[in-house]
Every structure is written in C-alpha cells, then in structure tokens.
DNA sequence: TTTATTATTGTATCATTGTATCATTGAATG
DNA sequence: CATTCAATGATACAATGATACAATAATAAA
C-alpha cells in the first residue's frame, strides 16, 4: 500500500476531492502506481490528509467511475488494469483463446455439443446487432487487476 | 468434488456471495450438479476464487436456507434434491445463452469485436475435432451419493 | 475393537473496508 | 438578512476478511 504523497491546498477554490482525483490520475500517468496496486483505505488516506474519509471516498468513487481504479466494499481499492494499449496483441489473443476454451468446456459440461455452443454464440451476436465501437466503449470489463493484492 | 467453473466479477455491484449463490443455482438447475454431489469445501472454493472463505460460507448458508444444498459441519456440503426434478430443456438453454453472453462480454472487454470472438471459437472447435456425443455422457448422477444425514 | 489424537469441515464473532444517508458549514446570490 | 447549494462531516450500514471455535472424519495407539 504505497504512500501517495498527496499535497492538498486547503486555501484553493478547487474542492479537496477534486485535488485527490487529479493527483491520483497524475500518479498513475507517471507510472508511480501500477495495475493491481492497492491504494490506501479511505480512512487511512483521510487521516493522513486530515480530512473526512467521505471526502476520500468521493474521490475514489469518481476515479472508479472513470475506470481508473476499482473500489470493492470490504476489500479495498486497487489500480485497475490499463485499458488495452499495454497488453500485447499476442497476449490479448491468448486470453481470447482461453476464454473460448472456457466457454466450450462449460457448454460441454452441460451436455451441449460444440455445434450447439457455436450456434448459441452466433444467435447472440446476430440478435444484438448494434456492436459498440471498441474505441467509444469505456472499457467495461477486463477486470483482470484488483482481485489479487499483489 | 466437481470444479464449479464459477466466474466472479469483482467490479460488479452485486456482492461476491450473491454471484456464487446465483451460479450454483444455475449449475443445479441445468443439471451440471446432481443430488448427492459434494461441493468444494468453503476453503477450496475460496482459494480458487481468491476470496475469503467466509464469503463462500455465506453463499453456502444462503443456498442451505433455500434447501438447495445441505451444509454439514465437519462433513462438507452436498447438493440436495432439486426442487424441480425435471431440469427443463429451457433452463439448460438459458444457461448456455448466459455463458455465451459472458464470453462475448469478456471478448469485448479485451477490445475484440464480436466477429473476432466468433472466429476464435470456430478456430478452437475445428482444431479439437473429437467431440464427445452428449448421449454418451452417463448421468453421473445421484446414484450412490454420500448419504445425507439431513 | 476401542480409545485417543489429529486433520478437516463448517460456524461464530469481530475487525476492516467501502457505501448510503443525512446534518452541518460556508460562500454565493437574491 | 434569507435562501440556496455545493463541499464536507457524522453516523449507521453492508460486504469482506481474520481469527478462534465446534463438529465430524480420519488415523494412530492401546
């Protein structure tokens, strides 16, 4: 759990929670925080910064909504995996193949044939015609990161 | 002791224990788990899912209270009689569709298109040509399950 | 076999973490 | 002034984790 060295300016007109948001974003961008890293708890950081922990929680929630971190009740908050660009194309491909294997095995385990599994996927993809552009979609999933407290 | 192939989404707002409950219900409903089958121990499943075993225990307790499983201190947890003995074909179909949805969403989360997801599955199914016939799968069912002293 | 010991299983209790809701503050505005 | 509203604080809560415990099984000892 790294010390974030966040510096607040209580005289500023920019709200505390926004200062926290900005500085965490900065730390991630500069590479001081890596995917999977656990952030201080809302109460720890709040004590360090001499603010109410709700203010830290509010900052964390904003960062969570922007998919930069993952806040998990009872577990903590973790830096979320960077969207895509850092993962090599080969690694992405291997992950996709692993997902396909899992889907096939699950279907077989339920007594379906591989052709039925394939047909089910085709049916799903044809019904949901509107396929969101990967560029626009705010990276809903991938959630690889935070479950392991590194 | 079957591997349940439970997949958790730590970023979701639905609690872990509810995700476990839902997926076990699913597995029973579609016939992947039969009366008498022993579930993984709370610690085994917890280690596999990277969560605290109390979380698994909480899920098991909920399933026990709904009379779907029987948790027995010192013995383990076992599938009870299914409330609906005829696992409907519709339920199996719904489960397959849910699995397909998960596969698609995971692929999209990795930045792949739906067509790429489909192609990956097709490639996998073509390479592994040996497909076990569903008819051959013997019902590994409850024939001699570990007598539940309920 | 019988008994004692050890291991494994689920249970109970509390601590820790983030969340939800409302109260308070203080500055902007009329 | 009074009003309003965003920012922050206080409190209660839900989800998860850590630890000790009790019940059952498995094994060893007598």
Automatic annotation (TrEMBL), chains A, B:
GO terms for molecular function: DNA binding; DNA-binding transcription factor activity. It comes from the Bacteria. Keywords: DNA-binding, Transcription, Transcription regulation. Residues 128-150 are annotated as: Disordered. The keyword Membrane does not apply. The keyword Transmembrane helix does not apply. Pfam families: GntR. Residues 14-82 form the HTH gntR-type domain. This is Transcriptional regulator, GntR family. It comes from Levilinea saccharolytica. InterPro entries: Tscrpt_reg_HTH_GntR (IPR000524), WH-like_DNA-bd_sf (IPR036388), WH_DNA-bd_sf (IPR036390).
């Amino acid at each position: 759990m790294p010390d974030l060295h966040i510096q607040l300016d209580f005289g500023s007109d920019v709200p505390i929670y926004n200062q926290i948001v900005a500085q965490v974003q900065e730390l991630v961008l500069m590479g001081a925080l890596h995917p999977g890293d656990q952030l201080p708890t809302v109460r720890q950081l709040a004590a360090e910064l001499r603010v109410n922990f709700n203010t830290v929680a509010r900052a964390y929630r904003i960062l969570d909504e922007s998919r930069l971190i993952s806040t998990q009740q009872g577990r903590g908050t973790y830096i979320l995996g960077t969207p895509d660009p850092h993962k090599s194309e080969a690694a992405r491909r291997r992950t996709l193949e692993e997902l396909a294997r899992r889907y096939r095995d699950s279907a077989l385990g339920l007594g379906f044939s591989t052709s039925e599994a394939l047909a089910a996927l085709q049916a799903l993809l044809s019904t949901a015609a509107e396929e969101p552009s990967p560029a626009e979609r705010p990276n809903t999933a991938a959630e690889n990161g935070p479950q392991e407290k590194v």
